[in-house]
Amino acid sequence: MNKIVGLACFGLIILSCKSQKNGSEETFTIAFGSCNKQYEENTLWDDVLLYKPDVWIWGGDNIYSDTDEAEKMKSDYEAQLKQKGYEELAHSTTVIGTWDDHDYGINDGGAEFKMKKESQQLFLDFLGVDKTDVRREREGVYSSETYRFKTGSVRIIILDTRYFRTSLTPDNESKKRFKPNVYGEGTILGNAQWNWLEKELKNSEADFNIIMSSIQVLSDKHGFETWGNFPHERDRLINLIKESSARGVIILSGDRHISEFSKIDLDGQPLVDFTSSGLTHTYTSYKGEENPYRYGKVIKDKSFGILELDFKSRKVNMIMAGDGNKVLQKITESY
């Protein structure tokens, strides 16, 4: 399997790693996306390349391989690695990311999945993670990367919302798939990852802190997977962001086969949950759903996300981009 050089530059990113800037520029570009079927044509890779991103972040469902057979999952990853457009991106751009349920191995799956240890190693192989990396021995694929330049810095915090996640509560009273657990029951991140995340945010000196969660954090009424199914965990995350004093926090998410911005105010600072989904297929029959935090409109075209971070102005352009270099929706926030 061809490995992708990306996470080999773990921690402080050195300037020789792929598309890294020379340290004197004032902007940093992140591209991200989710929900990518390896057996379907992805028409967006050429559009991603036009933005010349410094980093590509996989947001989950990077392949569709709902299986407990390691050889099948390995074959599915190999098929994705050989896709022409992605192969070019992976050779020119640092690639990092997390998984979601379909590349984890089981739809809506969590801690109960019997092949999660083998699945973790295959996922890390896909990203080209070094055999000596801490994630090779530690449970879960969570990690962080800090990109430092003369003009500013960015910390990208990658969460694992699968490995430790306890049971969901089916909703047998409506047409929704799930309903929130009893407050205080269950976990998304597990104790070890929560302790790690608290240190990552409280100790961060970065100008911008980007949190990648495969599932949505703010939108919590639709009845599919969301942090809202564990309301105490969602509250804990928002309170941690608020209390940590971490600067320029932005949440990225996927999973939903639609793209949208959700937004709340935290003591005068915007907290945006930028959902980008999907890359090869979307929720084409979408007719609306409740989201009290929605900012702008829902996009159901195939798309990927772009963040253009400006260290000098402390502004961030957030772009939903589609095929043919089309801007489907854009907002700008100041931090």
From TrEMBL:
InterPro entries linked: Metallo-depent_PP-like, PhoD-like_MPP, PhoD-like_sf
Domain PhoD-like phosphatase metallophosphatase: 46-287
Source species of the chain: Abyssalbus ytuae
Pfam families registered for this protein in UniProt: PhoD
Protein's name according to its UniProt entry: Alkaline phosphatase family protein
SUPFAM superfamilies: Metallo-dependent phosphatases
Bilayer-spanning residue ranges: none
Coiled coil: none
